[in-house]
Design brief:
Layout (H helix, E strand, L loop, with lengths): L16 H13 L8 E2 L1 H8 L3 H13 L3 E3 L5 E3 L4 H25 L2 H19 L3 H19 L2 H21 L9 H14 L2 H26 L1
Antiparallel strand pairs: 1-3, 2-3
Length: 225
């Protein structure tokens, strides 16, 4: 007879490939790996201390997401975020941001509003102190929190996937602070719509704001050639 103390222990195996995907994706987005750079499987295997199997799995995921291309010899090459592909993604993101703002008007809690106001204060402080890196970090957090306030997991999943590409394009575009002068005011207008629970206006303001961001990013990519 088997007692509780003798029952077999279940071992949870942590998948390695998703962790490698997350690390490499972050490094590509932030410019550690620049377009045209190769990611040799043997180098990555030694770096992460794993076999080639999870490395190949990770590279295949990143290829499916558009961050890498795999040459016939299976060499992974970092791709360039093209203007056409970035424009397509920005159009979808603009609509997702608008939908998130509209849904948040109905779903946002007091805690959601407090978090958005705090992040807005952080964003404005960074902008006024010319802390561009801090501004972008606070801006990302603000938009993620707005999507969270919409309380729609499908929307959140699509938004998160596309936002990775937006951040990649933003880094490549080398946005300057003066191009974002209207952004803090537009954020305040979005928050005002949320307070009034005015979903129609919130959606319009969020889409107008994202249209400005899109224009700045695409302009920057064109300037980079």
């Amino acid at each position: 007879m088997t007692t509780k103390s003798q029952a077999p222990l279940s071992i949870v195996r942590v998948k390695i490939a998703p962790q490698i995907v997350e690390r490499l994706r972050e490094e590509i987005v932030t410019g550690v790996w620049t377009p045209g750079a190769t990611l040799p499987a043997n180098v990555l295997s030694a770096r992460f201390g794993v076999s080639h199997i999870p490395i190949r799995e990770a590279l295949l995921v990143l290829e499916s997401e558009g961050f890498l291309s795999l040459a016939p010899n299976r060499v992974a090459i970092v791709t360039e975020p093209t203007i056409a592909a970035t424009s397509d993604k920005l159009i979808v993101l603009r609509n997702l941001e608008g939908l998130a703002a509209e849904l948040a008007c109905a779903q946002a809690t007091d805690a959601d509003m407090e978090d958005l106001l705090r992040l807005q204060r952080d964003l404005e402080h960074c902008f006024e102190s010319h802390d561009l890196a801090g501004y972008h970090q606070a801006n990302q957090a603000f938009h993620r929190r707005l999507v969270d306030a919409a309380d729609n997991q499908t929307l959140s999943d699509f938004h998160q996937a596309l936002t990775r590409h937006l951040e990649w394009a933003r880094v490549r575009s080398k946005i300057r602070a003066e191009f974002l002068a209207d952004a803090p005011q537009q954020h305040r207008q979005i928050i005002d719509c949320l307070r009034k629970r005015d979903g129609v206006s919130a959606r319009r303001m969020a889409e107008e704001h994202f249209a400005l961001v899109s224009e700045v990013i695409l302009r920057g990519l064109r300037e980079q050639g």
